[in-house]
Specification:
The complex is a heterodimer.
Chain A (H helix, E strand, L loop, with lengths): L25 H11 L2 H20 L6 H4 L4 H14 L14 H21 L6 H10 L2 H16 L3 H26 L8 H20 L5
Helix pairs in contact in A: 4-5, 4-6, 4-7, 5-6, 5-9, 7-8, 7-9, 8-9
Chain B lengths: L18 H19 L3 H12 L3 H35 L7 H10 L18 H16 L10 H29 L6 H24 L3 H25 L4 H38 L5 H4 L5 H18 L1
Classes of the chains: A mainly alpha, B mainly alpha.
Chain lengths: 217, 313
């Protein structure tokens, strides 16, 4: 600090005020209140946030709620339920059964990571986890489609059921792709939107294919 | 209110809010630790406490906490930086516009005429990567007959492994041959060239998985596969000098590329055929029977691939 030793502060310039960092008066109270609140409130707050995001996916409007407060609870729940429903039940030693839980899980997360990296490399302004969040939440229509398919398969597995399932899965696939495009495409430079949308299309296509070709053993 | 006059002479009494202060404190912490290790704990602490003008133990605890936070922050920052630095290495290879991608896709089917002048290859990875993923999706789509669910788990891993293995493995192999034959091509260019060459494969498989005419497949194999192979071969020839080298390089690439298309069609087609056969029994339309010409070979090939991919994964 040798160079600073000969700085002198003139008496005319008032040097006043607080040196300490102003800790806002609300902050300790807030900490206290979220620590002291009942567990039910904490859980309900998180559940409400997740639920709000589900609604945003079902009715995709250009809003930034999904992007601003990203969380991965919703994608985890959706991925686990989809993987559970897609498990082929066959315990036959000759056959593998359907895609196993781990396979679906890995494909979904690996695909989401690849798409995120791709959109970042193409110059996107969205962060890694925000993109994962959006892609995960937009699996919701496909999970609903899977549920419907299972119910239809309970009724029978003929040609008509196949046609119904095809229509349902196609509709859900289009819905998922449109929903995720509505959120993600805005973060790209305008002339490169198609480059980002295509891998998303492929990703949901593969998931839709897994759903459509599922038959319970 | 009071006035806070900063007395420069007593800057030793720091609150640890600037990096220089942290650095100095860190330095003093290190020296302190060394002294402690030598067993002069008490004296050093007292000495430092007095020197820094802080009140003994409380001040020291504060220093340690601040120091630890700085260390953790520094570590996190350097980790994050190395992660982003890795992504940035790939960024220039993804700098494309949609029109460029479309143009390159169409160009990959048009063999160049001028082979005396080294042809330009765009070192771009977006198009090839998307084409490999599309090929994987098309392979999976080819299994749309519902009973292939039985093998679905293995087939998905096999499809991904096959396509990526081909793209990366054959690129590396041809790059190695190019190095031996003194061809002027870099690894990224080779990846790009082979990746775009898969466009022909994608078209062929997409059409022939939906229309199961065998003669149609052979026509597509020769025409579409041949065109994309010719383009790759012409580009490589334009970058290689010497007849023997050209022959080796281009012969290998042509053989591998055409054989891969053949393999993709027959190995996966056979699975569909076999299952359709068991489903429909003797009522199979005649043209579908042609597929059973080489059942032994197809089966062996498919089994070997599955085993190889499973072993490498």
């Amino acid at each position: 600090f040798a160079g600073l030793a000969d700085v002198s502060i003139s008496e005319e310039i008032p040097v006043e005020g607080q040196i300490t960092v102003p800790v806002g008066s609300h902050s300790p109270d807030e900490d206290g209140s979220t620590l002291d609140e009942p567990v039910r409130e904490t859980i309900m707050r998180d559940l409400k946030a997740v639920g709000k995001k589900f609604v945003h996916v079902l009715y995709p409007r250009k809003s930034s709620t999904l992007l601003r407060d990203w969380d991965l609870w919703g994608p985890l729940v959706l991925c686990v339920s989809l993987a559970l429903m897609l498990q082929g039940g066959s315990a036959d030693s000759k056959d593998d059964g359907g895609p196993q839980f781990a396979e679906v899980f890995v494909i979904i997360w690996f695909g989401a990571v690849v798409i995120t990296l791709n959109s970042k490399l193409l110059g996107g302004t969205i962060s890694f986890f925000q993109s994962l969040c959006v892609l995960g939440y937009c699996v919701l229509p496909l999970t609903v489609g899977m549920l419907v398919c299972r119910l239809v398969l309970l009724a029978g597995s003929g040609t008509i059921s196949f046609i119904i399932r095809l229509v349902v899965v196609l509709a859900m696939f289009a819905w998922s792709t449109l929903a995720s495009t509505a959120f993600l495409a805005d973060s790209q430079p305008p002339n490169r939107k198609a480059l980002v949308v295509y891998p998303i299309f492929l990703f949901y296509f593969v998931i839709s294919w897994m759903i459509l070709t599922f038959t319970p053993q | 209110g009071g006035s806070a006059v900063i007395d420069m002479e007593n800057m030793d009494d720091t609150s640890g809010s600037s990096f220089e202060d942290m650095g100095e404190m860190h330095q003093r912490m290190k020296e302190e630790e060394e002294e402690e290790a030598e067993g002069e704990a008490g004296a050093a602490e007292e000495e430092d406490g007095e020197f820094l003008g802080m009140k003994g133990l409380r001040g020291q605890l504060g220093r340690q906490v601040a120091d630890q936070m700085w260390q953790v922050g520094k570590r996190q920052a350097s980790r994050a930086f190395s992660l982003y630095a890795n992504i940035d290495i790939l960024r220039p290879y993804f700098d494309v516009e949609p029109v460029q991608v479309r143009a390159r896709l169409l160009e990959s089917m048009i063999p160049v005429k001028m082979i005396n002048f080294p042809q330009k290859i765009a070192g771009e990875l977006y198009g090839p990567l998307m084409l490999v993923f599309t090929l994987v999706a098309i392979l999976l789509h080819g299994m749309k007959t519902s009973d292939t669910i039985i093998r679905e788990g293995t087939l998905m891993g096999t499809a991904i492994g096959t396509c990526f293995g081909y793209w990366l493995g054959v690129s590396a192999f041809i790059y190695f041959l190019a190095y031996l034959c003194n061809a002027q091509i870099t690894m990224v260019q080779m990846l790009s060239l082979l990746g775009y060459g898969l466009f022909g494969h994608c078209i062929t498989l997409f059409v022939t998985y939906n229309i199961h005419f065998h003669s149609l497949f052979y026509i597509f194999w020769l025409v579409v596969g041949g065109l994309s192979t010719l383009r790759m071969v012409a580009v490589l020839v334009s970058r290689t000098v010497g007849h023997t080298q050209r022959l080796i390089l281009c012969g290998t690439l042509a053989a591998l590329h055409m054989l891969f298309l053949l393999y993709l069609h027959f190995a996966y087609h056979k699975v569909v055929e076999g299952i359709l056969d068991t489903l429909e029994g003797p009522n199979m339309p005649p043209f579908q029977r042609v597929a059973r010409d080489i059942p032994v070979v197809s089966n062996a090939v498919l089994n070997t691939t599955t085993k190889t991919v499973a072993l490498t994964l």
